[in-house]
Write a structure and sequence with these properties.
This protein is α/β, with parallel strands linked by helices and 244 residues long. It has one domain (11-239): Rossmann fold. The chain is 39% helix and 19% strand. It contains 10 helices and 7 strands. It has helices at residues 11-14, 20-36, 38-49, 70-79, 99-107, 119-124, 150-163, 176-182, 192-203, 210-214; strands at residues 59-64, 86-92, 111-116, 138-142, 166-172, 221-228, 232-239. It has a 7-stranded mixed sheet. The protein binds S-adenosylmethionine. The site of S-adenosylmethionine has 16 residues, from helix 6.
């Protein structure tokens, strides 16, 4: 285990959405997800925390740091038949949702929209100013929380807890094995941006009960935090009435 988190700016975050290196890096990310087994890890976590979702009511889902929305689309394909209708909001600082991705969601019966915003501004806004924002059934984060140092994460997770019933995050696991593997993403054909960011992501990742320690201590949440696959760290929290 690597003892301390180190958070350094990732190259992809500084590139414009239409920069060819950024576009390539986002395609690389899909390959990295395949190697990490993210889709199966996320499917298991979501199945566990959505088992009580009422099938008759639309599920309001927010993905934060959603990127181009393709990871959740893969999940939607796996899970659409088992879920109620979903209205999905993809929040990212960059506008990355391609029309063909939106159309693929629509074919599954999911309503999707993009919210272009900085998550820290979203977190700082008073939830009461937008009563809809305060009532997400589920918020999801993938390879996103590790961008932030612990004090910032505490505030961000507080905002998440105020605004949802359930929260699931899949993040890089901060271990020597993951660190070693992060140096090998070039073997997947990944570009320089992905090669550099993969290593930084692992150094900023999580293990043990680190995210739970930053989560609201309120007693009405049930929390699970565990390693998954070879390289991932999963956190989920559900209000007790909805918890698995
Ligand atoms: C490593 S990518 C992960 C994308 C996607 N969740 C996935 O797993 O494929 C991180 C994403 O977070 C977004 N991001 C970084 N900092 C952000 C911020 N402060 N507010 C909103 N989005 C941010 C980036 O634009 C990028 O799309």
């Amino acid at each position: 285990m690597i003892t301390e988190r180190t958070i350094l700016p990732e190259t992809l975050d500084a590139l414009a959405a239409d920069d060819p290196a950024a576009q390539r890096a986002r395609r690389d990310l899909r390959r990295v997800h395949r190697v990490m087994g993210t889709r199966a890890i996320l499917r298991r976590a979501l199945s566990a925390c959505l088992h009580d979702a009422r099938r008759t009511e639309p599920l309001r889902v927010l993905e934060i740091g959603a990127g181009d929305g393709t990871l959740l689309l893969a999940l939607a394909r796996d899970m659409a038949a088992d879920l109620p209708p979903v209205t999905l909001t993809l929040l990212d600082r960059q506008r990355l949702l391609a029309p063909e991705t939106a159309a693929a969601y629509a074919r599954l019966g999911w309503t999707v929209q993009m919210q272009t915003a900085d998550i820290l501004e979203w977190a700082a806004a008073d939830g009461r100013q937008d009563s809809k924002d305060a009532s997400w059934d589920l918020i999801v984060a993938n390879l996103f929380l590790h961008h932030f140092p612990n004090p910032t994460l505490t505030d961000l997770l507080d905002a998440v807890a105020r605004r949802c019933q359930r929260f699931v995050a899949v993040e890089p696991r901060r271990t020597w094995l993951a660190w070693l593997a992060s140096h090998l993403v070039g073997a997947l054909g990944a570009n320089a941006v992905t090669r550099e960011d993969a290593v930084l992501s692992v150094r900023a990742g999580f293990n043990g009960a680190e995210l739970g320690a930053l989560w609201s201590r309120a007693p009405d949440w049930e929390i699970r935090e565990y390693p998954a696959g070879l390289f991932s760290h999963v956190f989920h929290a559900g209000r007790v009435a909805q918890a698995s």
